[in-house]
Write a structure and sequence with these properties.
The protein is of the alpha/beta class. It has one domain: 2-enoyl-CoA Hydratase, Chain A, domain 1 (Alpha-Beta Complex), CATH 3.90.226. 48% of the residues lie in helices and 12% in strands. The chain contains 9 helices and 6 strands, in the order E-E-H-E-E-H-E-E-H-H-H-H-H-H-H. Helix 4 crosses helix 5.
Length: 220
């Protein structure tokens, strides 16, 4: 059974739901591969206008990397390379993306990397909340609740978890400009902010950390 579900919920709006509820959608190699393949297909879909990242279980969008996955050293590196490709694919996605942030949202409302020495977070968080606040959040690994995330401008809306996906769909449907215009604007944001360079730099450090540093937990 595939670890994701996909549904075209409205014209031009697709929901990609992570579907490992037993693991709070922790991202293992299988899930990363499924998401990577879906993103590659959707990036070239001329009928798509907005992509929503969601979940089949409101208890978690994702608990982050699946540190319980049984991997040897080579497998650990391969999974980190898959994470790097996933991060790059999201950064490069040519149309608007929306995340349904419910339950555990590790990597977006919690940055656990500092606890394990993982070099992850600065590339994407600093442009969103500013350098000083990004340092505090990443280095302390402090978890944000809904109120704090809203104050930082990380949430477009705050609603009960059961209503979160429907609210995301409403937001997606409000993006009514021509598809080509949406693609142009997305490209402008990317180029003006230099996000491709930042994410590529962080991805390089992540793979080096797994290959030659401590790495995420793995079996001997």
């Amino acid at each position: 059974m595939a670890p994701i579900q996909r549904e075209r919920v409205a014209e031009g709006v697709e929901v990609l739901r992570l579907d490992r509820p037993e693991a709070r959608n922790a991202m293992n190699s299988e899930l990363l591969a499924a998401v990577e393949a879906a993103l590659a297909e959707l990036a070239g879909d001329p009928s798509l206008r907005v992509l929503i990242f969601g979940t089949t279980d409101v208890k978690a969008l994702s608990a982050g990397a699946d540190v319980r996955e049984d991997l040897d050293a080579a497998g650990g590196v391969a999974r980190m390379e898959a994470f790097a490709r996933f991060y790059a694919a999201v950064e490069a996605f040519p149309l608007p993306t929306i995340a349904v942030c419910v339950g555990n949202v590790v990597g977006a409302l919690a940055w656990a990397g500092a606890r394990l020495g993982v070099p992850v977070g600065p590339a994407r968080l600093a442009p969103l909340v500013g350098l000083a606040r990004a340092k505090e959040l990443i280095l302390t690994a402090r978890v944000l609740d809904q109120h704090a995330a809203g104050e930082l401008g990380l949430l477009a809306a705050a609603v009960p978890a059961a209503d979160a996906e429907a609210t995301a769909i409403e937001l997606a449907q409000s993006m009514t400009g021509p598809t080509e215009g949406l693609r142009t604007l997305k490209r402008m944001f990317r180029e003006l902010e230099g996000s491709e360079r930042r994410v590529a730099y962080e991805n390089q450090l992540l793979v080096e950390f797994q290959a030659r540093g401590a790495g995420l937990p793995r079996r001997p």
